[in-house]
Structures are given as C-alpha cells and as structure tokens.
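Listing S7. Sequence submitted for prediction.
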Amino acid sequence: MRNEIVAISKLLVANLRYNKIALVFNLVFPTVYYFYNYYSGGIDAQNMTQQVVYFWTYIIFVSILNFMILPVINYRESGIYKQLWLIVSRKNVIMLALFLVYMTVIALELIIFNLAIMVTSGAWQPELIISSLLTLILFGPISYMILTLLLVLKIVPESLSVLAAILIFILFYLVTLDSTNVGLQMIYMLNPVKYLLVASTWMLGLITGQGFDGLVTIQLVVVGVVMCAIGVFSLKNFNVKPLINQM
C-alpha cells in the first residue's frame, strides 16, 4: 500500500506544474488582497490578528476545493480515476495519496502567506505560522470530508468552474449569519467556510494565550463528527465510473 501511495503521489506532484491557475486563486489572490488592504489602511498591527483568520480560511477552503475535490470529478469523467483504480485496486489509496500531497501544498501556501504578513508588518510572529498549520492539520480534513459530498452529485466537468464560483460566493456570504443560540451556531458551522473561520479564530486565540473557549471546543468537536460522518457516506458512495457509464 505504501508503494502505491508513493507512486500516485509522484504523479500528482508532477501534475502540479499544470495547475498554476489554481495556485493563483489559492495563494496569489489573497496575498495581493492582503497587501492592498494593509497599505490602504484597512489592516493595521492592532487588528491584523483578528483579520488574518479570514485569509487562512480562504486559502484552506479554496485550495481543498481546487486541489482535492474538483480535480477528482475531472479525473472521474476523463477515465483517469478508473485507470488508477484498476492499477491499485483500492479507491481509498488514491484518495489518501491525493489528500497527503495537497495537504502538504496547502501547508506551504500558508507558510508563504504568513511570511508575507511578517515581512509587511516587520515583526517575526511564529504563532501565526503555528496557528494556521494546526488549523489545517486538525480542521482541514474535516472540511474536506463534508466537501466530498460534491463527489456523489451528478456534476459534469463543463459546469465545474461555474459551480465553484457559485459555491465560494454562497458559502462565504453565509459566514455572515450568526446567532446567540448555540444550536443555530452549530447548524451554521456545517458550512465548511464558517467551520474553518471559527476553528482558525479558536486556534489563534489558544496559541496566542487569549484563553480557552470550552463551548467553542465542544461545538467544533460535535459539528466535526457530523461532517466526518457525511464524508464517510460520500466516499463510500463515490462511483469511479464516468457519469455516462452510470446511466
């Protein structure tokens, strides 16, 4: 199994050079937008730590979508996924290799972004790197799990770009929804963008010594279990055959 994962991982790494557009949306866009806000006065040293979590959330969510969800749909429809599946005979091996490769790529994106923040502010703040990476490691997989729900939908490659744009717009818009009711808060956190934002804020507060919020911790765990359950269902029902062959 290890040799199979390594072989598929090498293939995925080789394909990264053809995915430069995704890197622009995942990293370059938020970095440039941060610089614009910083130098225009929208972000200063006092509120930087409060606003940086939004950028982490964007990088993690959009990267998972562009690297780990949408390409799998393309692989399925082009027949590549089925070919790999016939070689390794295990669907989960392909998913695991893809997950490991692109989690590493996202981690590098976060490190580069945080280093850019430090250069801009002129202050060395390793807690930013630590917080963002821990958020990715602990909560990125949970957001990935619920996004795998897209893999069981009848989606054709021609509609992927439109779907991604609509999904990003709607989910980031729904982040604005909030409530003092604990139950509603947890329902809103089923939105992976909201979940990552809450997790990022919680982690940054924990690492910087702002305190431990027990209620938020419980919410993150409970909602995370639900999202993982949805992901297990989706991965179990993911069909490697192209849609035309499923009809």
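Caption to Listing S7: primary sequence and predicted structure tokens for the chain studied. The chain is about 80% helix and 0% strand. The mean pLDDT is 85.
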